[in-house]
Predict the structure.
Amino acid sequence: MGEKLKVGIVGGTGMVGQRFVELLDQHPWFTITVIAASANSAGKTYEESVQGRWKLSTPIPDGVKNIVVQDASKVEEVTSQVDFVFCAVDMKKDEIQALEEAYAKTGTPVVSNNSAHRWTPDVPMVIPEVNPQHLEVISAQRKRLGTKTGFIAVKPNCSIQSYVPALHALLDFEPNKVVASTYQAISGAGKSFADWPEMLDNVIPYIGGEEEKSEQEPLRIWGRIDDGQIVKASAPLITTQCIRVPVTDGHLATVFVSFNKKPSKEEIIARWQQFRGRAQELNLPSAPKQFITYFEEENRPQTKLDREIERGMGVSTGRLREDSLYDYKFVGLSHNTLRGAAGGAVLIAELLKAEGYIQPK
């Protein structure tokens, strides 16, 4: 690959930022040169800035411990040292939008873990195996922002990774109605049991804003580009319930689906097992070899057993059977902080590099 691209992590001290640090340590294509966060963390070493709040089970990588954290609001200082940035800040929506656009306008690509730009019409929201063609809208975005090389690309909500890939593999059969209930880990809220003891022995049947995201974001992913904008698809109709459960990592979904062209159970399983996307075709470093794994066992997938499949970047399905109200029902599972958050964003960056959208400055 030659010289590695220089990466900045904006919002590098939070839980998702910590995942970025972990995943980019020893990455074959990218190397961390800047970590930026709020003014409160600026000036400290990275080790000092996360002391007492490092949330991962793996230790802080040695290569970043002594990096001095920079102020994320000082855009020019950060961008002068990097080829592109990952963004995972905890701010208000309008503040995130302004910050990410400021970075992009310097000619710096931004791969965002935030939700702020998911519905900006010319910003691609990408699952690399599902809708890589949406990257083509970047040319329109660059014109709007007045930059030749900068842009923003975002990853979708973590919960939909547990069922959208499974449905995407079946689009030829024209799914028309979907009911999905997601059972979401506490790390999706940036929490651990140490700082959220109320979740022990508890289930909370509400996650703010999550159901609207889970119902609408799949339609944007399956949408089309029209006149420099992404227009969301009109089908299938999706309704969801999103529930917080006492699990560290991993979002599980129970899914009911009907089709215009009902496939056989064997056809569905074959589509899942054979599905390969652009990430697999390009053999990207973070791409799972087997994107969707189907379990024949009646009690799989299980969150604790199967969330780490394919280094946390695979999606697993199981319990496929016919239903009395819908055509079929099944269970899906994905790792929310790997495939669903930082890992998914790293995979997007790899796709952007492979397709020529991210280059050395």
Q: What stands out?
A: The two ends are 16 Å apart (CA to CA).
